[in-house]
Write a structure and sequence with these properties.
Helix content of chain B: 25-40%
Radius of gyration of chain A: 12 Å
Structural class of chain B: alpha+beta
Number of strands of chain B: 11
Largest sheet of chain B: 6 strands, antiparallel
Helix content of chain A: 25-40%
Strand content of chain B: 25-35%
Structural class of chain A: alpha+beta
Shape of chain B: elongated
Strand order of the largest sheet of chain B: 1-5-2-3-4-6
Radius of gyration of chain B: 21 Å
Number of strands of chain A: 5
Oligomer: heterodimer
Largest interface: A-B, 31 and 25 residues
Distance between the termini of chain B: 34 Å
Chain lengths: 113, 257
């Protein structure tokens, strides 16, 4: 299940509070981690932000005073993307590596079996 | 209990904020950072030891009552004259003050961020009138005490370390400064800035959290995969190019702001 992959990502990376798998063409959030506390409006806004920021690229970030948002585009399926909301003290190298693995796992369909 | 009270008094006199007992003053060679070094001495009331460091290089100064009292220690790479260390200072000690100035300026010439730690001086120094005020130090050490403090953007930029390639600063429309690789800075100004200003405008319609200042980073703005970060503050827009794959460094630098 895709949600288990996202749950595992949030468990493994301290500070990663939300992970959402989205479809960039339809701007739809397809699945989030189970403990996600973001509202649907916030998730939809993140989806739009991801679409705008990933034009022509595969990695983007928005950082504010209170949180950082990481956006990754799928390698095999460029319309797939992962949005992560994390705390300021998150280990970003670890987050990027594990988030890429999670995205590829879900995107390739391995996690849907 | 005395220690607690002293610690609280020191905290009350400190204008900045410490993280894990350490305060980042800024890039060591920046005029504002040098001014901040003097400011820290000027902000002392109770006797204390202040350790200034750039990487593994460091100087420990004893201060109190808004005056420098002594240079207690310095790392060997700064070539401290042995007779300058531990000597109680006064304005009459011109030679010693010049030697300590050389040590401090050698530290400020190091490549990296200047950090500061402050602790209560365990042995009270009594009511001696020894010591030298920062106005005198400013003249002797040729440090501009009135230099402005580093901006959040300058702190961010410096914290990128070796991943930094180039940057430009604007007041929203006009270029106000550029640093680093000149070719990249030209590309940032000519090609990237208009695109990211447009992206910023497009993002204003999206209701995600973006309190000022905020940072947007992407890997699509430069052809070689280098990262470009747009630093958005109230009245300025600044762009920084950093090495491909440097997003962890960018996130870490943002945490310093």
């Amino acid at each position: 299940m895709a949600q288990k992959v996202l749950d595992l990502l949030c468990e493994q990376v301290a500070g990663c509070e939300t992970a959402a798998f989205v479809d960039l063409t339809t701007r739809m959030v397809l699945v989030t981690n189970g403990d996600n506390t973001q509202s649907q409006d916030t998730l939809n806004a993140m989806c739009q932000e991801a679409e705008l920021m990933l034009v022509g690229g595969d990695t983007a970030m928005v950082a504010t005073s209170g949180q950082m948002r990481l956006y990754l585009r799928g390698e095999a399926e460029p319309n797939d993307a992962l949005c992560c909301v994390c705390a300021m003290d998150t280990n970003f190298a670890e987050l990027i590596a594990k988030a890429k693995d999670s995205l590829n796992e879900i995107s390739s369909g391995v996690a849907n079996g | 209990m005395a220690d607690n009270l002293e610690s609280k008094l020191i905290a009350l006199t400190e204008p900045g904020q410490f993280k894990a007992g350490e305060m980042v003053l800024g890039p060591a060679d920046a005029p504002a950072t040098k001014a901040a070094l003097l400011s820290a001495l000027d902000n002392t009331i109770l006797p204390c030891l202040i350790t200034y460091s750039v990487g593994s290089s460091s100087v420990v100064l004893k201060a109190g009552g808004r005056r420098l009292r002594a240079c207690v220690a310095a790392s060997n790479d700064l070539n401290p004259p042995a007779d300058a260390l531990g000597k109680t200072l006064s304005a009459d000690e011109g030679e010693t003050l010049a030697e300590i100035g050389s040590i401090v300026n050698a530290l400020l010439a190091c490549d990296g961020m200047l950090t500061m730690k402050r602790e209560v001086e365990p042995a009270a120094m009594g009511q001696s009138d020894a010591g030298v005020g920062v106005k005198t130090l400013s003249e002797l050490w040729k440090i501009d005490f009135n230099a402005k403090p580093p901006t959040q953007f300058e702190i961010f930029e410096s914290a990128l370390g070796e991943t930094f390639i180039a940057s430009i600063e604007t007041d929203g429309t006009d270029l106000t400064g550029s640093r680093g690789d000149t070719d990249t800075a030209d590309v940032l100004k000519r090609d990237v800035l208009p695109k990211l200003v447009q992206l910023e405008a497009d993002l204003t319609k999206v209701k995600t959290q973006r309190d000022l200042p905020y940072l947007m980073t992407l890997n699509s703005a430069l052809p070689d995969g280098a990262l470009v970060s747009l630093f958005v503050a109230e009245e300025t827009r600044s762009l920084v190019a950093s090495a491909p794959g440097s997003l962890p460094a960018v996130a870490g630098a943002w945490g310093r702001v």
